[in-house]
Amino acid sequence: MSRILVVEDNEGNLELIRVVLEMAGYEVIGTSSADVGLLAARKAHPDLILMDMHLPGMDGYEATRIIKGDKELKHIPVIAVTAVTDRTDEERVRACGCEGFIAKPVDTRSLAAQIAEFLKLGGVEPS
What we know:
The chain is globular and about 30 Å long. The longest helix has 13 residues, at 11-23. The chain contains 5 helices and 5 strands; from the N terminus they run E-H-E-H-E-H-E-H-E-H. It is of the alpha/beta class.
């Protein structure tokens, strides 16, 4: 079973993502801040991280840079979950180390398929 870490400060969004992914057979670890997300990543070594980019305190951009600079975590694909509005936003997401992005509002009908594709790109066979 693939383990997905979701870092999302909006409780409703976090719960929605959790339910959709658990129904698709994924193990989901949810956190509401970048600091706790980094701790969870170090402890759980997830197969994929979904990172909200606009978090209070440390934002998702900084958290992703820390993950990508950590020799124990840098192999984990980080996918931005954000309201990407233009090419500049997409470039900023990629520049901090994210391998891709999922646009908000999240399309619950395609979320599990998107996650499966990102896992394959990261060399993980989705469960």
